[in-house]
Amino acid sequence: MLQILSLLFYFAFPALIVFLCRKSVVLNKIGEILLLYIVGILVSNLVVFPLGLGEKLHGIQDALTSVTILLAFPMILFGCDFKNWKLKKAIVALCIGLVSVVVVDVIGFYIFNDNQTGFDKIAGLLVGVYTGGTPNLASLKIALDVDSETYIFVHTFDMIISFVYLVFLMLCGIKFFRVILSRKVARSQNHKVIETHQSHCEDKQDVIDTYRIANSQQSYSGILSKKHFPETIVALGLSVMIIGISMGISYLISGKVDNLLILILTMTTLSIAASFLPFVKKNEKSYDAGMYLVLVFSLVVASMVDVTAIDYRSGVNIIMYITFVIFCSLVLSVILAKIFKVDSDTMVITSVALVNSPLFVPMIAESMKNKKVIITGITVGIIGYAVGNYLGIIVSELLK
Fold it and tell me: pLDDT averaged over the chain?
C-alpha cells in the first residue's frame, strides 16, 4: 500500500504544481522544477514521512529516478525537427556559445575544485546543463553516477543564479551589449524596427512556427486527452524500444546492459535518428510527456535528499563555480562575438538558449523587441539538448 501511495504522489503531485503555476504569476516565476524540489525536500526532511518510513521507499525511489529520466530524454528529442533547421544562420553563434561554456567550465574546474573528489563530475554536469538543459543535467546524473545530494545542490543553485542572470540581461545587459556589439536590425526613418513583406516571408513563418513550438513546450495539457493519448503511448513505446536497443548495444560493447556511459550516448544518437521518422515528427505531445517525466524525476530525487548530510562548506566552491561558468562564459561570448562580428541580439539569445533553455528565448526576444532572433535561439537551444550529453561526458572524462 505504501508503494502504491508513493507512486500516486510522485506522478500526480507534479500535475498540481503545473496547475498552480498556471494560476499564479508568483509561482510561475519560481518555476515547476524548483517548487518540486522544495516540496520533495520538505517531504523528506520534515514530518510528512515518519521516522524510518522514508528509508522503506528508497528502493522505489531509486527505480523511479532511473526509469523516468531514461524514458524522458528520447521523448524530448522526438519533438525536435532537425531536418528543417536552418543551421547556417545559427552555426557561428552556436560554436561561440559552446566553446565559451566548455572553455570557462574547464578553467573554473582548476580554480574551484580544491582537490575535491568527484569535482570532475560537477564539471560534466555544468557543461551539460549550460549547453543543453535540465534533461541533460538529469541524464548526466545517471551517466556520471552523481549522488542525489550533489545533484540537488548543483541544480538548485544553478536555477537561482540563472534567474539572477536573466534579471541582469533584462535590466541592463541587453542595452549594454548593444553598445559593445553591432545590432543588425533594419530600421525605418523614425527608428522603429520594421520587417519587409516579401523577401522575409520565410523568416516570418519561422517565427510563427517557433512561437508554436515554444508555447507547446510550456504546456502539459492534453497529454492524456482522447486526441493525444495514443500519440503519448506511441512516443513512450518508442522510447522503451530505444532503451532496449541501447541496453543491447551496451551489452555487446562492454558485457553489461547497464554501462551508463554507452547507454546514454546510444540513446541520444538513436533518439535524434528517430526524430526524422514521419510518424514521430507528427507527434505533438512527445516533448510535453517527456518534460512531465522530468518533473516526476525532480520530485523523486528531491525526496531522497537528507539536508543534514549535505557538505555546505564544500558547497561554497560549487556555488562560486556555477556563478563563474554562467557569467564568465557570457563575457567570453561577447569577446568572440566581437572578433567574429556576431551581432549583440544573436549573441545574447544564444547565451540564454544554452544557459537557461529554449523556453526562455521568446521572453528575452520580447525584451529585445526583436522577434527575428527567436528561430536562432530555439535552434541553438535544441541543438544544445542534443549535444549536451556528449560534451558533459567528454569533459568529465578528460578532467577525471
Answer: 81
Question: In this structure, are residues 148 and 305 in contact, taking their beta carbons and an 8 Å threshold?
Answer: yes
Q: At 294, list the grid cell.
A: 522530468
Measured distance CA(277)–CA(396) in Å, rounded = 32
Q: Please check whether residue 126 is in contact with residue 325, taking contact to mean a CB–CB distance below 8 angstroms.
A: yes
* Residue type, position 136, single letter: N
CA 154/CA 135 separation, integer angstroms: 14
Kindly state the cell numbers that stand for 278: 514521419
Residue with cell 561570448: 333
CB-count burial class (<10 Å; 0-12, 13-18, 19+) for 109: buried
Q: 83: Cβ–Cβ under 8 A, 6 or more apart, which residues?
A: 276
Residue 373: pLDDT over 60: yes
Pair 222, 213: CB distance under 8 Å? no
Sequential DSSP letters for 55-98: HHTHHHHHHHHHHHHHHHHHHHHHT---TT--HHHHHHHHHHHH
| CA separation for the pair 212, 393 (Å, rounded) | 32
For cell 523528506, what's the residue?
44
pLDDT at position 257 is 86
Query: What's the pLDDT tens digit per position in 177-197?
Result: 999 887 654 343 344 433 334
